[in-house]
Amino acid sequence: MSNNWAEEYAETVETRSERRAHRRKQSAQERAKNKALAERDYLYRDWKKWHDKQLKEFLNGDYADAAQELHSFLAEADLDSGDQLIELVQQGPWLEADADTKYAVLRMIDYAITYLRESNGLEPFDDPLGSELNVFLTIRKLLTGW
C-alpha cells in the first residue's frame, strides 16, 4: 500500500476525457434504444391500422349482416355466453366461407374473449389440457377442422 493517499485516490478517479467518453457512449446507447422503440411504435401503428382496415372491410363486406350480428353479440357477451357464441357461429355462413373470412371471424372472437377475460380479472388465455376444448378451440375446430 502506498504511503501517498493522494496517489491512490487519483488512480480511482476518472479523468475528464474518460467521463466525456463514458457520456458519449451512454448517449449513443440511449439514442439506439430510443430509435428502436420509435421503430417498434411505428410498426405497431401500421399493424394496428392494417387490422382495423381489415375489420372494417369484414364488417362491410360480403358477410356484412352476419358479421354485424357477430360483432354486436361479442360486444354484449359475458363469461357465460360461450354456448350461445358457438351456436351463433354454427348458424352463420362461416362454415362455408373462404379462409380469409374464417380468419377474420376467429380473430374477432379471439380479441373479444381476451378482452372479456382480462376485464374480469382473469388471465387472457387459459387453454385446457389434453383433448378438452374451450369455447375458442371449439369454434376454431368448427371453422378450420383442427
Overview of this protein structure:
With 146 residues, this protein is an all-alpha fold. The chain folds into 2 domains: 1-45; 61-146, no CATH class. The protein has 6 helices and no strands. It has helices at 5-12, 16-60, 64-76, 82-91, 99-119, 135-144. The longest helix has 45 residues, at 16-60.
How many domains? 2
What spatial form do the alpha-carbon principal axes imply?
elongated
N-to-C CA distance? 75 Å
- Mean of residue pLDDT values: 88
- Residue runs with pLDDT of under 50 for 5 or more positions: none
**Main sheet makeup:** none
> Over the alpha carbons, how many angstroms does the gyration radius reach?
28 Å
User: How many beta strands in the DSSP annotation?
Assistant: 0
Number of helices: 6
Classification by helices and strands = mainly alpha
* Helix-residue proportion: over 70%
Query: How big a fraction of the residues is strand?
Result: under 5%
**Could you give the order of the helices and strands?**
HHHHHH
